[in-house]
Amino acid sequence: MISTHILDTNLGKPAAHVEVKLFHAETHELIATATTNLDGRVSDFGIKEFTEGAYQLEFEIAPYFSSLKIKTFFPRVCIQFFIEDINQHYHIPLLISPFAYSTYRGS
Fold first, then answer.
1. Percent helix, percent strand, percent coil in the chain, to nearest 5
2. In this structure, how many other beta carbons lie within 10 angstroms of the beta carbon of residue 58?
């Protein structure tokens, strides 16, 4: 399973209503699209089976900051990661602010 959440570190709260796309990284084939809930989370992309390999999450954060009337340097954040074991849960959090972002492998 792949999940994610976004925390707006500038405001200290979750980033709701952000579109997140999941791709195969090598082919850039779109697998799924989701929108973060009010808690800033996508707990399930609705994909039943995964294969080992490289994937990419694309977070469309420009509309989020625009809705807050805040300018951002990064309109989109792309995170590539590798799935080695399809039986594990892969949680990829994103921490954003208007001029920085960071990520890590969550649990």
1. 5, 50, 45
2. 18
Residue with tokens 């954040």: 77
Neighbours of 49 (CB within 10 A): 5
What pTM value is reported for the model?
0.94
**HSE-up of residue 93 (Cα within 13 Å, Cβ side):** 12
**At a CB cut-off of 8 Å and minimum separation 6, what does 66 contact?**
none
pLDDT in tens, 49-98: 889 999 999 999 999 999 999 999 999 999 999 999 999 999 999 999 99
- Residue ranges with strand state E in 1-107: 2-8, 13-14, 19-24, 30-35, 41-42, 53-60, 76-83, 90-97, 100-103
C-alpha R_g of the chain? 13
